[in-house]
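WARN retry 2 of 3 for item q-0093 after timeout on previous attempt; input resubmitted unchanged.
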Amino acid sequence: MRFYHFPFFILFGFLAYSQNNHPKVTQADIDLKIYEQDTTAHAVVLYEKGYFDFQLLNRQIYLVKSYEIKVKIFDDQGFEEANIEIPLYHNENAKETAYDIKGMTHNGMVKTSLNQNDIFQEDNSENWSYQKFSLPNIKAGSIITYSYKVKSPFFFNLNGWNFQSNIPKMYSEFNAVIPGMYFYNRSLYGGLPLAIKETSIKKSCFNPGPGYPVVDCEVIKYAMKDIPAFYDKEQYMLAPSNYIGRLDFELATHYRLNGSKKHYTKSWKSVDSEFRKDKDIGRQLAKSTFFEKQLQENNLQHANELESAKNIFNFVKKHFTWNGKFGIYKNIRVKEAFNKKIGNIGEINISLINMLNAADIKANLMMISTREHGLPKKSQPVITDFNYIIAKADINGKTYLLDASDTFTAFGFLPFRSLNHYGRVMDFKEDSYWFDIQPQTKNKVVIRGNASLYPELGEIRGKIREINQGYKAIAKYKFLKGKSESEYLDQIEESSISDFYIENYTLEKERSNEKLLMQSYDFVIENALKDGTIYLNPILLKFFKKNPFLKDNRNFPIDFGYPYSYEYNLIIEIPEKYKLISLPENKAMALPNYNGMLEFTCSESAGQLNVRFIFQLKNHYFESEDYKAIKTFFNEAVNIEKNSVVTIKKI
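OK item q-0093 returned
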């Protein structure tokens, strides 16, 4: 992840946006048939501009955001760009409003204006609503233009500027004028280069009202050109907010007109103090008497501290049903949730922490952000960056990160949604601190098989054992949930080669546990022999359906969540009067810095065909510079599985 952080004395009196001109369409815009820098684009932003300023309206200061844009639509897959949503924030006391909304569709010389009656508002959540409209008469080749203003009483909601979006942009410009009463931090994310970066001080630019001194402002102008589209549906990525090219603002201090000031950005020391007293977190961690009673009633303590911790973890995991809510800032009532046996993430994992501490096992609350929520900023506390709670337990000199909300998660494992690099440990007896999330490393699938040819039957028969370990076992258990045995076996057969059928399936429960799943079954390949010859793909069970990396380039990291490996071994007995005619080529490949390797060998020895395929990812995180190597690596693996063929012929 690349970002740049600039604390700055922000001043907004913004060149009062009298220049709210609707974007003009040129002949060059009309003639544009394709965007040369991304020929796959269904639409492109030709021009985009924003003006943010503070204005005194009816004796109250408002943040006014003005926006204008011009978009070329190339085909029907780009029609969605004509459906517009303007997000508006509100609370119990105030709200943002959108106004001066204008829109037009240009089809050559024919112009169709937006009808104001087609604009409507829709509530989305407790604090957000959307002003919506769709531009009319959209066709392939249309150019749409629209502009609007948003008036906001929330100074903290100077929510920055997205230079990057789901379609490419030729030009995007952000302008702001900020009065000296406001001090913001700003951060530039995404690593894309700025074409324009200008800042200047404008003297006496903002009058906050009668009887108050006129203040200076900082005028800023940032712009980018030829901005690539951001594809947020790509696999193995964290939250798009970590990487999308954008400029973020965060209100740090408001210098009030009466001479006082309010700090919005706090220190971790002050945050720690507030959390200790908070009724939803700090006070809920002080229920020792209640949970000591639960320890005794359920006989959970053991002479071995680690065994006690495992007993408590498994008890809490089985006792609670997660209600699907995270709930870390409000509505946490651990005693009530415990008695009802249902709760949110905060209630479940704070109950776990309470019970561990009641057993004299040191456990702290750790705030994290899920993979979909984004990485927390380390530069200063931003509490809304966190949306999840886990437990950090220290046992016999070793640290365990625990989450009892997931039925399938083993002790010492976190659900995949929580594997997001780092979090903040709230040690209320000491100061809080950052702590890295290190995923478990023993995650693998091993397939071992033996088979024999039966020419008289035209069949190949054999036995396969599949071993899933670590996160691969957890994923397999989840996959099996809710499926009948026949449904599961049908899926295996369909994903294998033609005429492959399973017989005598066994889930080896006595040899399996929450971190290990062992299965075995007999199989038959019918119609294997044709005219005395067998053409066989020896990779009977495949690890890959296709290469998940299809784009030519990627401007953000690849994050698999955890390292893993696949291993496939098959031995086929070749009967007398038959011999191997051809074998696929042996192959080997390694990723840079030996962060991954694959190896495929196919050989004959003592009347046996020996097939071995190994695929290892030794690291779970790769920078964007490694993308082409990763893409080639997976492509080679898919090619081995798909195109390896052995020819066996009767002598």
